[in-house]
Every structure is written in structure tokens, then in C-alpha cells.
Amino acid sequence: MTPVPANVPANPVFVALDTTDLDYALQLAERVRPHVGGLKLGLEFFTAHGPDGVRAFADAGLPVFLDLKFHDIPNTVAGACRAAAGLGVSIANVHAQGGAAMMRAGLDAVKSTNPATRLIAVTMLTSLSDSDLPAMGIGGSVGDQVLRLAALARESGLDGVVCSAHEIERLRREMGRDFLLVVPGIRPAGAALGDQQRVMGPKEARDAGAGVLVIGRPITAAPDPVLAARDIAQSLGISAG
């Protein structure tokens, strides 16, 4: 097993509340809270409810990863990152493909607003595979591009990256123990793949060196989300909090 990365939650599971139904999201967060380490709020939720929707989770007692993937000119991204950090979220993100100047502007804005907020970069979407890259004008494999973008993010001072489970070991080896790896596309045994192409089980990903495991539909679409969250936590050797 790879040593546990530094500065990560005792329970690495962040449940993805990808819904436009605020009441349902709040109820689900409350129900699964004993079995998860955080919440992930993304574009679908934020477009429907905006900053007030994020603030609604302030009393949930769980860290929030605001997954909006900012990608624009540096000044615009800085303003967006400043606003995100002002909401008190634990993690925010940008697209590494926006370049070093954009990432540094976002980082400066985040840290000057809320030093506790970690800014990470999206490398390659987990819905992409090697066969998608030529049409995008990208040579090599997805793994090669992820490594290049992760190195750029680290050089820009960011706290970590979003990557697929299959890049964890390589990135942990190249980026070091303190670089946060946030991993979506986590699918327990028997779960449907959905639109994810590069997936892995929770324990396998955690043991490879992932810091945060983002898990959505295997919990939220389960017949019993609480039972699903509990089973995932137990597979990781984590008792209810």
C-alpha cells in the first residue's frame, strides 16, 4: 500500500450531489454524513442554486469540494476563485489547460481570500480515452497528458489535481506525497460505468495513493444510499463517524 498522503480527510469519500433538487441534496447529505468525509457540488447543482445553494451546506459539518472547473483568462478566473473561496469551501478547481498564468492568478485569489481553501487543477476529464485525443490535437496517451498538466499545476503552486484512478500511482511517484490527488470515476464492484471510461474501486484507488475519492451515482442512485455509503466506508476500513 502507498503511504497515506498528507493533509487528507480520515474518510476520503466525497459524495457527489449532482442534482438540481436542493432539498433532496440536503436530506441526502444529512443521511450519509456518518459514512462520508465530504461533499462534492458541481455545475448542475451550482447552475440551479448558485452561491446560496453552497451556503446551505454550511451546517452539514462536512468539507465541500466546489467542482466548477474554471477555465478563462487569468483575471476572470481570479475573480471566480475569489468568490468560491469566499464561500468557505475546502476545495475549488480550475482547468490546467488554462495555463500557468491562469492557475497562478486563481491560486493568489484563493489564498488571499481563504488560505484554508485548496485549489486543484483538472487534468483530463475521466470521460476521455486515448482514442479521443487525436481529434483534440493532442499527441501521446491520456496518461502522458495528465502527467504534463499535473507537473504544470505543481509548478504553478497548486495544491493538487483531479485525475483518474489509473494515473494515481504514476502521479504519486512523480508529484510526491503532499500533492493532493482527487479522483472521480470511482466505482465499487458491480456498479455501472455510466459515462466514465477510466474507473477503479474505492479501496484499490485509496491504496494506490488517492487523497479524495469522488463517488456519485453508486451512492446517490442506490436503492439505499445510506447502505451504499456505509458499505463503501467499511470496504475502506472506516467506521461510522
Biggest β-sheet, characterized? Answer: 8 strands, parallel, barrel
The share of residues in helices is 25-40%
CATH class: Alpha Beta
Q: Which architecture name does CATH use?
A: Alpha-Beta Barrel
Note poorly predicted spans: 1-6
Count of helix runs: 9
Enter the CATH topology name: TIM Barrel
Model description:
The protein has a single domain (13-235), classed as TIM Barrel (Alpha-Beta Barrel). The radius of gyration is 17 Å and the shape is globular. The protein starts with 12 loop residues before the first strand and ends in a 6-residue tail after the last helix. It has nine helices and eight strands. The protein is 39% helix and 15% strand. It is an alpha/beta fold.
Outline of the structure:
The chain is α/β, with parallel strands linked by helices and 241 residues long. Helix content is 39%, strand content 15%. The chain has a single domain, classed as Alpha-Beta Barrel (TIM Barrel).
Itemize the secondary structure elements and their pairings.
Layout: E1 13-16, H1 22-32, E2 38-42, H2 43-55, E3 64-70, H3 74-86, E4 91-95, H4 100-113, E5 118-122, H5 142-155, E6 160-162, H6 168-175, E7 180-183, H7 202-208, E8 212-215, H8 217-220, H9 225-235
Helix pairs in contact: 3-4, 5-6
